[in-house]
Amino acid sequence: MRTDRNHASAIGALASVGLTRVRQRTSDRVYEELAAAIRDLRILPGASLSETDLAEQLHVSRTPLREAIARLVDSGLVSVVPHVGTRVELIRLESVEQARFVRESLETAAFAAACEKPERDVAPLRELLARQADACEARDLAAFFAADEALHERIFVLSGYQTAWQIMQPIKMHLDRLRRLSLPEPETVRGLITEHTAIVDALEAGDSEGGRAYIRAHARRVLEYGPVLRAKHPGYFGA
Predict the structure, then answer these.
(1) Is the dihedral of CA 144, 146, 149, 153 positive or negative?
(2) Are residues 76 and 97 in the same domain?
(3) Which of 47, 70, 156, 170 could cross-link with 165 by S-S, CB 3.0 to 4.6 Å?
(4) What is the tens place of the pLDDT at every residue in 155-176?
(5) What angle do CA 205, 210, 213 make, to 5 degrees?
(6) Is residue 3 part of a domain?
(7) How far is CA 121 from CA 31, 166, 205, in A?
(8) pTM reported for the whole predicted model
(9) What letter would DSSP give residue 24?
């Protein structure tokens, strides 16, 4: 993966938004696609954003595009510098740590609430573990990340606090980019599956204390590989 932020490859393929027929504001769909592309590293940290190019790729006019970019600025994913242009923010470990704290706090609470439920159907979680293993074997990082996210979301669903998961998403974007950057390492992916399995086992057993300990360790992985990834990809990180 190149670290030249001005190179055209800093922006990957984007899905057309303007040609889809869904009952949702165009600016919302543009925001969701750009936020997902930034999170998934299809748009790299530090990349310059051209309104002309984005409007052409997304098949939208400038107005909804500018509304979406304003929301990305508000969420700290993009910055607009007068007379310079619009750029994707670099990954900052301080922002990652803030997001890690929020995620860990909410997910441990959700896990405890899920353990209190008299019936805990973990079959969907087992299926997601199988999907992760298949994605790891196929080296399909996008599929693995999607199954990873779905597993954590399912814990919130089981707890009855799915809204907390949704509220957390804008904050978690900073953490997600670092998580996504770590996935090319096979050992990292296998380690995540092992930790996910331990969390699901604890949930099935109703082991609130043990499961929350697993989640805390799982969430704090970034404290270990954040500095390593910054040394490996210095062009993606800010001070």
Answers:
(1) negative
(2) no
(3) 156
(4) 999 999 999 999 999 899 999 9
(5) 145
(6) no
(7) 34, 21, 11
(8) 0.85
(9) S
